[in-house]
Amino acid sequence: MKKIAEAFLHSTASLSLTLIIFIAFGICWITILLSENIPALQSLMLVPPREDFSNSTLFLGLIGLLCLNICACSMRRLLRIIKFHRLLHSSFGSPQDFSVPCLKQLILPVHPDPIPDIRQKFTETYPRAKCFRGASSAWVFLAEQGRLGQLGFFMAHISMVGILIGIVLAARGYEFVREISKGQSLTPLFLIDPKGMVTQLDFGIRCEDFTVARGTESSDLKKMWCLLTVEKNGAAVRRQKIDQNTPLRYGVFDFYQNRAASVRELFHLCITRPDGTPTTLGVRNGDIFLLPGSKHPMQVIALRFDSIRLRVLGSQIAFWVSRTQRNIPIAGQPYAFQLVSIDRAAAASIKIVYDPGKYILWVATGCAIIGFFILFVCPYRRVCLVCACTDTECTVTVSALPPQQRDDLSNVFAFLESKAPQQPLL
């Protein structure tokens, strides 16, 4: 917890940044919740609100914003690392050029030469230390520890981009409710987004069985379920019992049982193709189906006692169909429509949730948590010792990041102070 607190308090702007983030988060949350009831706000929203958006996506968004706060508070450290590696691969100037805090500076006698002893002590303390000359002929002793922490650092911060992408994609999701009878197949499956755009999916669903709630008590509603099958290319690819809390997950779609099954009117529609082949379909209000023998989707948009109104999606063609056969030309082909019969059958209400950003959100959030965990468990540490020698004296500057002293650095300090004939200047 101490390391986590240090990460938050590492930057002086941490508190103000946290406050700004939470204010912006609250404004966005309130705007999304109010936009469901205020038409003026709905027109200003770039994407339509979704019922479960404020429950799951905004919760993950909060986690992402908190991680972004840690990212911003650690930005100074990232800039130091970039500056340090730029100096490392180019050339070194004065000791002040190093992007690490100066902890101590000592002056050692130039005779005898202190460099061999310093090199031996430094390599004993840090086995993987590097020793080389800088641009000003100064000896540089460099040690880096916690490379795994560096991996966690970059992994966590790169995951922030994935979290933002997931939030944007999740905001584009929506819900759609379809009613389906026992044994009925909705293949292919059509969805309508809040903007009225129709999407044809490459798979469909079939209802194998469901239960009808006998009462309105919560115990009765909890017992209802529906056996749903996902069909693709004429074959069943997944089958599962679903209820209000247990969905069938297929790709970026989640299928829930929306409410208890109830008895609904089912209209049996006979459509005769141009070649004279009849096809009988069972449809309800709002259903979308493909016109037999073509790729034109049609939707039931209105009902009457003994007739239904159909509309060809993507065109202005709309007409009523009754028990009297009616010939309608569609795309230059003559089709005949007739309402055969009307039944009352039980139908289950299926809620389809389209959430394109859920996998990106979960993966990015998991990677961010793992990255920060590695960062805190295996912290990165850099120790740099610069020896600038002249004809009369040798100035030794010790720098470290983070600047907290540890036992290994205390040993180096004690060794240098034993070589110094005078008290440290700093």
Outline the structure in words:
The structure is a single chain. The protein is an alpha+beta fold and 426 residues long. It folds into three domains: 2-75 and 152-172 and 359-376, no CATH class; 91-145 and 382-419, 2-Layer Sandwich (Double Stranded RNA Binding Domain), CATH 3.30.160; 174-354, no CATH class. It has helices spanning 2-8, 14-35, 39-44, 53-73, 75-89, 115-125, 147-171, 218-222, 358-377, 407-419, and strands spanning 102-109, 130-133, 139-145, 174-181, 185-186, 190-192, 198-200, 204-210, 226-232, 235-242, 248-250, 253-272, 278-283, 288-290, 297-303, 308-312, 318-321, 326-330, 333-354, 381-389, 393-401. The strands form five sheets. Strands 4, 11, 12, 13, 18 and 19 form a six-stranded antiparallel β-sheet that branches. A five-stranded antiparallel β-sheet has the order 1-21-20-3-2, covered by helices on one side. Strands 5-8-9-10 form a four-stranded antiparallel β-sheet, with no helix packed on it. Helix 4 (53-73) packs antiparallel against helix 7 (147-171), helix 6 (115-125) packs antiparallel against helix 10 (407-419) and helix 7 (147-171) packs antiparallel against helix 9 (358-377).
Q: Biggest sheet: strands, sense, closure?
A: 6 strands, antiparallel
What's the Cα radius of gyration?
A: 35 Å
Q: Could you name the ranges where pLDDT drops below 50 across 5 or more consecutive residues? A: 1-15, 35-55, 86-99
Strand content: 35-45%
Q: Could you give the count of β-strands? A: 21
Specify the overall morphology. Answer: rod-shaped
Helical content class = 25-40%
Number of domains: 3
Structural class: alpha+beta
Total count of helical runs of at least 4 residues: 10
> What is the residue-averaged pLDDT?
74
Seen as an oligomer or otherwise, the chain set is single chain
Distance between the termini: 32 Å
